[in-house]
Amino acid sequence: MKIGHNIKKIRKEQGLKRSDLVKKLRFTYGDNALGYRTIQRIERGENLKDRLSSLLQLAYVLGVNLNQFYKGTEYEDKSQLEEAAKEACITKAKARGGTFRYNDKAVLEIVSPKNSGYISMLLELEPNSKTKQEQDPEATIKFIFVISGEIAVIIEELERTLYKGDSIQINSHRPHHFENRSKRKALAILYQNPKRF
Q1: What is the pLDDT of residue 83?
Q2: What is the CATH T-level fold of the domain 3-70, as seen in this structure?
Q3: Following CA atoms 14, 170, 125, 148 in sequence, which dihedral angle do they give, to the nearest 10 degrees?
Q4: Distance, CA of 65 to CA of 150 (rounded, Å)
Q5: Average pLDDT for 11-27
Q6: Taking the complete model, does pTM exceed 0.70, yes or no?
Q7: What are the extents of the domains in the chain?
Q8: CA-CA distance, 43 to 79, in Å (whole number)?
């Protein structure tokens, strides 16, 4: 079975036409949203370019975990499922959930197990870089812990700068983004609950 088959099945189970899905994507991602033809190619299993970022968009607007797209396909990680049954799940570096690039200087890598109910991410910001503005669904929280460097957390009009060892929890349904205004690379762990993709 292909990933696209699962995406199409989930979309239809939610009673969405492709055009409805495109509207939801545009509402959330604006000009960066996937288009109708791209979704059509993904569902046919034809479009592999920028696959992770495309899958993240689709999972987010469909309100499902990313691992639901992989279920029953060759990409499903059986070893993680076996470990989860034993209540211990190690995520090897090569089996991480993937990378999402905001731009050339801002990268987000999923580091939590695919089958968890939350999501943990490693945020890497090069000097003088920032992420795009995001807004999660109601009742979503993000916890940010800075590993190195400094990161400014901007939530609407509120701004807080965090340094190595600092942390903050935000209600991420409010518009927010992250910036590194320093001359050193910054790293942070982001924890999001509930998991939205």
Answers
A1: 45
A2: 434 Repressor (Amino-terminal Domain) (1.10.260)
A3: -140
A4: 30
A5: 92
A6: no
A7: 3-70, 90-193
A8: 26
